[in-house]
Design goal:
With 303 residues, the chain is of the alpha/beta class. Helix content is 33%, strand content 26%. The two termini are 35 Å apart.
Length: 303
């Protein structure tokens, strides 16, 4: 399979410490790739390397099929926002975009206006970037990353500093560009609940190592959804459940029963238990979030 971005054992050493250790990821054309990890896990280092802002120690990466030492003009098909946006503080949002477009050889006078509308800054007027709120700066940084309609856009914490409405708007922008233009995104975020609403594939990094790479649907299937059942007689309840056809179950130390299948049968369970004289004190369906799965995978002390 041809990938829009592929890395092979990408490693970055700072002295004896590995910020990245043999990381191999695979981003398909049209992915919204969620790069997940705690602060210091290696996400930003990875993004800097594949965007040409930092040198690798060893390994290779390929963009649009070309190795990193032979990218040539294809590097211009890559947009990025990493850490804080690089803004001309004395200029307006529109002027910042005009400068970026000019440097890219784009002189269409309507393009800055289109980008301003896209990122929700069409009313910013002549206000200087140094007076922008954090959210406005973040929006402008995303606009600069989108200049020139890149095929691959790398965004490091793109919703940082945004209010809830701003988060929704940026999420909609990413989704729309992905659907309508086929734009591929690599997005890091510590707000996994938001990331899970748009990501199509995940790479989970911990302590500089890639510990899992999964399509979103596969990862959702790995999340440990369950029915939690509390009765007055766990042993007898287990027998009833077995006769109902349940096999993926576990009795916890406190007598609670966790059931990991057939989540739509809570009604059958309570009726059958009552018929056998078992009292149900509590029955609830729990759907594990991707964030909880991540914490379970890397250990809760990682956050």
């Amino acid at each position: 399979m041809d990938y829009i971005l592929e890395t092979e054992n990408l490693t970055k050493m700072y002295g004896k410490k590995a910020a990245l250790n043999n990381v191999s990821i695979h981003v398909n054309q049209g992915d919204i790739y969620g790069l997940v990890g705690r602060n210091g896990a290696g996400k930003t280092t990875f993004m800097k390397i594949v965007c040409g802002l930092a040198q690798k120690t060893k390994g290779n990466y390929y963009i649009f099929g070309r190795r990193d030492d032979a990218l040539g003009n294809v590097a211009q098909r890559r947009g990025l926002l990493i850490e804080s946006p690089g803004l001309f503080r004395e200029y307006s949002a529109e002027m910042n975009l005009k400068i970026k477009l000019k440097l890219m050889g784009i002189n269409d006078p309507e393009e800055p206006k289109r980008l301003l509308k896209l990122i929700g800054l069409e009313d910013a007027g002549k206000k200087k970037a140094k007076h922008f709120s954090l959210g406005m700066k973040q929006r402008l940084g995303i606009g600069l990353a989108l200049a020139g309609n890149p095929d691959l856009v790398v965004l490091d914490e793109p919703i940082n500093g945004l209010d809830p409405q701003g988060i929704i708007e940026i999420r909609d922008i990413i989704g729309r560009l992905n659907r309508e233009n086929g734009t591929t995104f690599i997005i890091s975020s510590h707000i996994l609940d938001e990331l899970s609403k748009i990501a199509t594939k995940y790479g989970i990094i911990n302590n500089g190592e890639l510990i899992e790479e999964s399509p979103a649907e596969e990862l959702r299937n790995k999340c440990e959804s369950r029915i939690e059942l509390v009765t007055d007689n766990a042993a007898k309840a287990m027998g009833v459940l077995e006769r109902l056809g349940f096999s993926k179950m576990k009795v916890l130390d406190d007598g609670k029963i966790n059931i990991y299948e057939q989540f739509d049968r809570t009604g059958d369970i309570t009726l059958s238990l009552a018929a056998e004289g078992v009292t149900t004190f509590e029955i609830v369906r729990k759907l594990e979030s991707i964030e909880n799965y991540y914490l379970r995978l890397v250990g809760k002390d990682s956050e």
